[in-house]
Amino acid sequence: MRAMIVKEFRQLRRDRRTLAMMIVMPVLLLVILGYAASFDVTAVPTVVAGPGAAALSKALPETFQLAATYQAGPQTPETWARDQLRDGQAAVAIVTGTAPGLQVLIDGTQLFDAQKTLQELSALSGGKPVTTARVTGSASVQILYNPELKTSYIMIPGLAGVILVFVGTVITSLGVVRERQAGTLEQLAVMPLRPTDVFLGKIIPYFVVAVVDLAIVLGVGVAIFGVPFAGSAAVFALGALLFVFVTLGLGVLISSVSQTQGQAIQLAVMTLLPQVLLSGLIFPLSSIVAGVRWIAYLLPLTYFTVISRGVMLRAEPITSLWPQFVYLALLGAVVATLATLRFRAFLAPGAGR
Amino acid sequence: MTGPGAWGADGVSVRFGARQALDRVTVSALPGRVTAVVGADGAGKTTLLRCLAGALAPGEGTVRRPDARRIGYLPPGTGVYEDLSVAENLRFRSASYGIPGPAAERHVSEYLERTGLGAARDRLAGQLSGGMLRKLGVVAALLPQPDLLVLDEPTTGVDPVSRADLWWLIASAAAGGAAVLMSTTYTDEAARAARVLVLDSGRSLAEGTPAEIVAAIPGTIAVAAERPAAGDERRRSWRRAGAWRVWRPDAWRPDAWRPDAWRPGADPGRGAVVHPDLQDAVCVAALRRELEAGHA
Question: Collapsing DSSP states into helix, strand and coil, what is residue B109?
Fold first, then answer.
């Protein structure tokens, strides 16, 4: 047994990456999760519109963090408020000067913000629970986009992204490194194929699988879980395309820096895990401590989640989603460039100097 | 024998970090001929073949090889996909080389029948035995009807019957005009080649026809039952087939080591002088290198 233990430690020491993963990952996960794993909402982004907006914005309870006010303009205060919610600028909109006095609009796709808002409102109205469209004192409350505050509504658009990461990054990273491990890469390198032929030939099947997967997830989400698809399919498709592009590039990149399928899986999981935990899929981004939150803003899934939830649930137009599209496109360009360079080096005859 | 139409390497050096894998090696592969590269494990055979096939760019020297479409290559790991069937592997290979379907199908069928792989057509390559897998690798390398066929140890670990099949494949490719460059650890196999390159620790020890290499051995080689007790003779001896061979570089011999000129002669009291073969020549070449290095 001693011999076995010594052998195992020797092998472990050679496999630096596994060792690093065993020591660094738990610490990293603990720190990140410790700071990120929070459903507590302390501040709900709020906009106030209408004639009394200025006065009301000063009287807002602490929880409601003022994002913008709108006194008067080309739009009616209510239209403006609804647009703000649709475009993800705020989770709550309060419109003054309406029939019962105040109209409170809540974005149901921001589940935790919405729940916090309802709690606050119920506290304000003397402890009575506040429900949809119920008049509490002089205010009417309306929850938009996800009136029943269903978790499935917000999870399924996000899960679509996770599945694309899984196919795009995890499975693709295996596909390329397999060639290296099986020794077929050398054969490919001497065959009359251009590196782009090999690169695209390698990626397109995974792209097709990712698209089919996405269609299935959306189909199941809409048909079985009743998740609405309110927005433009074209905008959603463009977002998904950019996102798949990023994840596939990441998969090839991981493959080209890995020697074995085991290493590729390790690296792919290292990119998958933080995306699942930090992208806003599970924990609201606003609840993540700022020191960790910046990581979230580097991850492609963070942006795809915003796009898919926005388009599917709130019919958010591309005009307000363009920063997400631009970031994904930039990230895609960077990742694809790196992946192509690495892939070329990987296929081109190595120099023996 | 470097002439027009000959593929090969001139003064090729390859370095992997601190290790000199190849040191100014020159080899030619002539159309219609089989050129064998022999040497122990780690001699640099695979590195040289990778340079010829285009999988590795040498640090120094030049490589003359045809366009990638005209090269067939059997890499050390056979280069076939174990999770594809025999037929699927060959179909992928022909398509990658742009061989039209009917022509590819004809060649595939012919090769598969001749090599006994026909029955295994639909089996996954991963389920084939070692010998069948190497045969599949060679057949795949032959598919583009290459001008230069580079085979890395096509017969290593293969049973005698499969070895004969493989030799048929290799010989028919050469007969068809291909320049074949193959590596092997078996000197009896190399002796069947038109030309041989002997590699040792990345350096070329000898190059020529098997007869030329054997003829170039200075002195005589004797067979002795016991290893010489001490001195130079001991250092110039090696074990072979249950006895010892002793190389005497300064001994007189009747003629060059040509079979027709050679008569089994006696060297009284010091063992019988034998006609050396390629294996002896390779051993002598390695000994010379070692002894020269020792004296230097």
Answer: helix
